[in-house]
Structure formats: structure tokens, C-alpha cells
Amino acid sequence: MHPAFKKIIPSKKTTIRFAAFTAGLIVLFFILDLIFKLPPVPQYSTVVTADKGEIIHAFLSKDEKWRFKISTKEMHPDLKKAFINKEDKYFYYHPGINIFAISRAAFNNVIKNKKTSGASTITMQVVRLLEPRDRTYLNKFVEIFRALQLELHYSKEEILELYINFVPYGSNIEGVKAASLLYFQKSPEQLSLAQIVSLTIIPNRPVSLNPQRHPQVLMTERNKWLARFAEEELFDASRIQDALKENIYAVRKPLPKKAQHLSIRLHRKYPRLTEINTNIKLTTQERAQIILENYMARIKQMGIHNSAVIIFNNETKKTEAYIGSPDFDDKEFDGQVDGVNAIRSPGSTLKPFIYGMAFDKGLLTPKMVIEDIPTNFDGYIPTNFDEHFNGLVSVEKSLAYSLNIPAVKTIEQLNPAVVTKTLVKSGFKQIKRDEAHLGLSLSLGGCGVTLEELAHLYTIFAQNGMLYNYPILQQDSSSFSAPVLSEASSYMISEILTQITRPDLPNNMQSSFHIPHIAWKTGTSYGRKDAWCVGYNKKYTIGVWLGNFDATGVHELTGTDIATPLLFELFNTLDYNSLQHWFFKPKSLQLRTVCTFSGLPMGEHCTESMIDQYIPKVSPNQPCQHMKEYVVSANLAYSYCTSCTPDGGYITKTYPNISAALADFYDSQHIPYEKPPAHNPMCVRIMQDLGPKIVMPTNNKEYLIERAVPTEIQLKCIVPNDVVKIYWYLNGKFYKEATPKEEVFFLPEEGITKISCSDDRGRNSSVSITTDFY
Fold first, then answer.
1. Count of other CB atoms within 10 angstroms of residue 304
2. Which of 263, 348, 494, 758 is catalytic?
């Protein structure tokens, strides 16, 4: 070998030393990598979008920045191309640092004493964005180390993504997506080439190139870069010419604030999500918002300040609108409270569900009659909304007129625990918490529900008895479904709730307003603190609530007069020309002839009939017994039992077969009805089963009486119509003689009191109560 080449080629010893040195550096790098971990990536802002990607709300990051995440896959190709060409042409080829660029910059800085920029790669710029430092030679070495670290732990696309998302645009704006939305009110994929180039160069001088404050300066700088890109043939010449002609129109505008209650709720639930994609339909949301705001403006003089609306689409099975209050910024009346998710008393709105369960359990059919009379349910004594009673009413009228006593009787037959468990399975969270304490009052609003839960329950009727998931989030792909009611019972409930001859139709509504083709139910809570109306048709289920978040009652606040007009207006706006006949009778439901007086299949003494719907092998099938045959004397003076029927001189005659409680109600209201004659006074049989039934006070109940102002307790019993006198005893001592209809009161002593009642036929009964004074 020529001696000159020997001088150039390193010796074996030198090569080994160099390899050892290189290996040492690599080992040192990995050790330092383990010791000095990369800094965590700062949290992004959260954006909430509607079903088509429109932004409805956004939240600052924890460090108060507008910083929206965008992936390189979502990025406009021109934007990616412009950034790489301008900032780091060899981005995809270097390991995080560009040795040649660094060498050139070092040569200029040291030898020529001239500062040169351009040595920093995109990776190194990401390091500075994540860990800002003063620009010193020592920090430059730290940046180099961190850049190599980034390349070790992140892919090129991930590094570019970090850069695109963290580049500064002045003030608290970081990242291309935030700048695009705030300055141009566009998403990055909608930007023009001129806007893309503008966003590419602003990060170098975010203050002097601010597009709102210095548009002309920015346009001059932008055109310089467009000319460079033209020389490099980075984009089509025609596109660059169009971009050169485009003026800069950039005004920083606040991001949308729609569906604020929902957005806040979702952000709290998913704080780390950068984008929350909802199923909210923006047009539906905005139209419902306008309707609600205008409606509240019309009724605010009544002292009603709060309301909420939720809209489910029954066809798509998605939540389409969510309005927690008409004015989020109304601080005087707690506008930031979410009325859709607030727990309130539902009033009568659970009644359709209770009757639907009763249909499926074989307890009732629509035409069956039920007693609507004053009733003591073991100390619980409900009344109707208008404080009147109707005697015997059909089930369909009981629901259409929202009568309370029939609903309580029905839930008593079902067992409140059965109803409660079904509601818990249907998603009622507060009812689940209170499950052990709920009873008959559940049917009249004695529980806590949210508007969202209640409206979701009504989708069961719209979906033929099935409960489906109506997701708010697009990410929610669960296809939950469960049968809650039968198709037959859902149809019967819908048929009742579509009737327009009912008291919960607002005054003059029939003549002054287009009544939508929907099924609906109203509710008013105790004290008139909540007004509800939930309606549904084939397309939508809509729930509305009105009241005051501070629970102030208002005399005018009823579901009928306040909530129903709002519901009708929403349906008329969203689905004006809906089908009149939108639900159809299922094959599992059949028709039968029943007695007009009882709603049961025709019995021996029935003379008038009508048609009723029933579920075969489920609905009650016992024959009607609304009339009972009596053996009476020829002069109709006395009736006889099997023990005292004479050998002759008697006839048989039918009389209404009504309960003692109903007879007592008819007598108290002076309602005429044909009574059977008094029983034969010569009969020696004592009929224990017809003895007095004490209905007040309730047996084995504890009564609390205020010592300063003691309240007397009423004594009341129900007796057969042949009883003229009754006798009351307290702890075995005679207290008072009275007629069956006479009101009797007493003040008990502290402790246990035994109360007995005897009638003039020698029959008696007793109850015991416990009294405490406070």
C-alpha cells in the first residue's frame, strides 16, 4: 500500500477506540434516557361537537390555552406539505437533529461571529415547545438530547402532530386547529391555500404577524413565501396565483357556546377527552332553544323562571337536543343549573307506566271500572288534583283524567316494590337510592326523577314496549334493548294518551292551536313546584319541565296550562305534518264484548254491553257481577239470607253489587242508587264478616301529636246499610254513640289505645294505635 494511504486510514487501535467511544455515548444516552424522562405532553383543550362535527362548545386546557388536537391523518395535505417545506425539509430523513444544519450554524456563529437560524429541526422545536428554555449553548445540547429522545419514543407522524398542535399563534392560542377556528372560523381542512401559508408563517413571529392586528404585514410575508413555493413548484401555479390575490380577513371570534349544560356535564365526566362527539342535531337544538326562550319570555310575569327540554329521536334512537335552562347566563334565577339532570318530583307522569304494568299483569283492561272514592291506604289518604271524586270510573278515563285514587289502588295491586324494581332497571338512579323507602305515593310523584330519565321511560311506549339506549355520545355504540312492557299494553296506553277529550288539554287549545298528532301526559308536583309534559309520536319523544330551581311554588304552575303548550309548540315546529295514525294494533291484542257497568265479560244479569280490548290468557276473564240477586219479602221491606228465608211469601230481585265503601261514598254525596232492603230483623244469625270496618285511625300506626296544640283524631267506620247506630269504646270504656255517618273525634292519651266499634246488630271490631306527644 502506498505510504500516503497509510496515513489516511486509521489504525486498528484508533478504530477500536472510536467504536468504544461511540458505544459509550450510546450507553450513556440510554442511561440518561432512563434517568431524565421526557416531559408529559400538556393537556389539550376539549371541544364538544354536534352530530355532523359542528362545534357546539369548547373548554380551555388546564393551563388556560386554546389548544385543540388534530392528527396528521385529519390534517389538510397542503398544510402538512407547507410546514415541512418551510421548517424542516429533511424531517423524514434525520434522527431528530440535522448535523449539516447544526455544523453550518456553528461555523457561522463561531468563525464568522454571525448568528444563523434554521438549524433547529421540527423535532427540536417540539422540545422547545414542551420545555421552553433560554437560548444558550448548554441548552442547545439539552435540546439535542431531548430531540433524540423524542425520536426514540415517538414516530415521525406523532412528532409532527405535536408540532402542529403546539406552535404558538399569539395570546393563548396554540396549534393550527385553534388558530384556524378562532381566526378564520373554519376547521383546518376547510382552509384556502392563502390561509394555510399564513398559518405556516405566523408561529415565527406571532406578535408582529398577528392576522387581526397586522393583516398587511402578514399578507406581505405570506406572499413572499408563496413566491418561494412557486419557485420550488410545491403547489400548482394557478392555485398560488389565486392565493396571492386573496386578502386576509381574520377576526378573532369566541367559539360557540351551545348546549352548555350538556357540554359541561360531558366535560366533567370525560375530562381527558380532547374531542367529545355528541349526537346532538344542531338545527333541532337551536330551534328548540329559540322556542323555549320565547315561551319563557311570555310566562315570566307569572313567577316561573326555569325550564328544560330534552328531545329523543325514536327513528335514530339518539338524543337530538338537550336544553338545561333557557338562559345559562341568568345568574339571578340559577340559569347554570341543569334542569334536564336535576332531581324533581314527577307528579302524575308515572301513571301510564303503572297502568301499562297492570295490563300486562292481568289486573285491568281499558274499560274496566275502578273506584274513585276517598280511601285510607293504611294512613296514606290521597286526594284528586281537583279534590273531587267520581265514584266508579273506567281505567281509560282514570288515566286520561289523571285521577289519583285509581292510580294508587292500581299500584297497591301491583305492589310498589315490583314497580320500583322495574323503574330501577329502566335507569332511575334516585329511585334506586330510595328504593327501600318508596311506597304507594310513587304513583303520585312521591319519588325523585330527572327529565332525562322520565322522557327515556316514555320512549318505551313509542317503541312498542322496548327500552332502547338513546346515546348522547357518538362513541356510545352499545345497542342495549330490553322488553319492559308488552306490545299490547303499550298500544292501549298510547290509544288512551292520544285522546283529545281530556282535562289536561289547555284552555281554548282546541280552537286556537294546532294539536299535534301525539300521545302525551302531564304532571304537576305537590305544591305546584314542577310542571311536566312528556309526549311522543313515531319520530320524537319530547320531555319538558317548567318551574323554579329554588322550588318556589306558583299557583298557575300546572302541567296542563304551562307545560303542554310548550310541548305542542315543539312538536308543531319539529314535526308539523306527522302522521295521524302512527301506531297500530298488534296481533296480540283482541276485542271482546264486556258489560258497560263493570268492563268485565258479560255476566248473568248484564243487559248493556260495549267493546273492550284485552290480552288473551292475560286479562281478567271472570264474568261481571255488578248486579246481585237478593231474596226479599213480597213488599220489598226485608231481605233474607239462607238461614232465615221463609217457606213462602218472598220474591227474588237484583240490586247493584257495590262495596260498603262505595255505598258510604254515595250516601255521603247524596247520590241515589237502589239499595237492597234491610236484613230480616228476626234473623238470629250474626254475620261476623259484615261487622264494622274501622277505617280511621289506621291499625298499628304511630301518631305524633304536638303537645302545645293537640290535634284530635277522627273515628270512622264502614258498616252495612242496615245499621242505624254504632258505639265507640276506648280501652274498653264506652266513649260515644253515633250514627254511621256522624263525624266523631277524640284526643288519645300517650301510649297504646285500643279502639273498638260495635253496631246495633252486636257485631264489632277493634284496632290499636300508639300515640306520642312532642
1. 19
2. 348
